[in-house]
Write a structure and sequence with these properties.
With about 200 residues, the chain is mainly alpha-helical. The protein has helices at about 1-10, 15-30, 35-60, 75-95, 100-125, 130-150, 155-175, 180-200. It contains eight helices and no strands. Helix 5 (about 100-125) runs antiparallel to helix 8 (about 180-200). The chain is globular, with a radius of gyration of 16 Å.
Length: about 200
């Protein structure tokens, strides 16, 4: 059971959420975008939002600022979250701009806001679930895309709801978070995406 729950945490790792959101957007969007452009954006995002944070973690670990990739304490979270804010700003400025796609632009603005809230809470010694922040934000973005493009994605939303429950269960079972930290994480991820929908729908 432990192996299964750990696998769930890795499958729905927060680092993979931006790629998942962008991939799903291009999959259901009725707007034509050249395949070469889509591939270039996904590769760029993978480098910036997955590879770079992993390399940054190992650097911070070498410097003694973090100890495990799970970032169990609020003190360990401050530097990775701060660096992730800069990475997200770079993505918004250079890769996902408002002139190219308002939906994706505000999706990343929402991720940035959630990241900044999480960072602020970490500075004040309060830990929230980054896993729940990531997956609840993605869930809200999927709902908004379904409405925006008038596409029936009920199956995808059902899967996402199941995934949120599985992630929450895994984090509780592995003693990574308390129920309160999971609930706070859910709202920190969902609310920015919900509010920002007003700017692109």
């Amino acid at each position: 059971m432990d192996k299964l729950l750990r696998s769930i945490s890795y499958i729905f790792h927060p680092l993979l959420i931006p790629i998942a959101g962008v991939s799903f957007y291009y999959y259901i969007s009725p707007r034509f975008v050249a395949e070469e452009i889509v591939q270039a954006k996904l590769i760029s995002l993978f480098i910036l939002t997955v590879i770079l944070p992993i390399l940054t973690f190992f650097l911070l670990k070498t410097l003694g600022k973090t100890h495990t990739i799970h970032l169990k304490t609020t003190r360990e979270r401050v530097y990775p979250l701060a660096l992730n804010c800069f990475i997200l700003i770079l993505v918004i400025k250079r890769i996902i701009t408002a002139s190219q796609s308002l939906e994706l632009y505000y999706f990343f603005i929402g991720i940035l806001i959630s990241n900044m809230v999480c960072l602020t809470l970490a500075i004040f010694k309060f830990k929230v679930s980054i896993h729940m922040i990531a997956i609840s934000g993605l869930f809200m973005f999927f709902i908004a895309l379904g409405v925006q493009f008038s596409v029936n994605i009920s199956g995808t939303l059902a899967f996402m709801a199941f995934a949120m429950g599985a992630v929450a269960t895994s984090r509780l079972h592995l003693n990574a978070h308390t129920s309160r930290e999971l609930i706070f994480g859910f709202f920190v991820g969902l609310i920015p995406q919900l509010v920002l929908v007003n700017f692109w729908m």
